[in-house]
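U., I forgot to send this yesterday:
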Amino acid sequence: MPEAKVREKEDRVDYRRWEEQGWLTVTPGNVLDEDWYVTMILGELSQYKVRCIAYDPWGMWDIVPKLSRYERELMAYQQNIRYMSVPTKYLESEVRKGTLNFLNNPVMRWMMGNVSIYTDPNANIKLDKAKSRNKIDGVVATVDAIGGWLTKTADNKQPYSHHTLRTIKL
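Result:
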């Protein structure tokens, strides 16, 4: 989070305390420095065997090339209800069952409390940034990650991917 945002306190949360506790990184200036952010992300990614990096493609045209080391793992994950409903329902289900562990992260707990859900007439759901009380970026990133994981694992289970057309004689 940029230092200027920490000083504003318009979100009515103690970002400084979260920084002191190690839950938040504060960067100098008024906006997040993309080069710093990419360097930090690459450092984090190097610690893991990365299989998929699902991301919101909006505004990423200049960041994606900087992640070229992970070109095969990158997955633009659309933010419309068609793609967001299943992973949002999955997240909701896992949270209700208590099977997800956010390591008592106060930032994530705050964001989860800010979430508002949009439901369409067909019972599809998605996170509604416009109606959410405050920041929900961590929750959106979690839904994107779940969506990427579900997409990658579903690709291996397509029932007709290894067969030709078959007919049945009556």
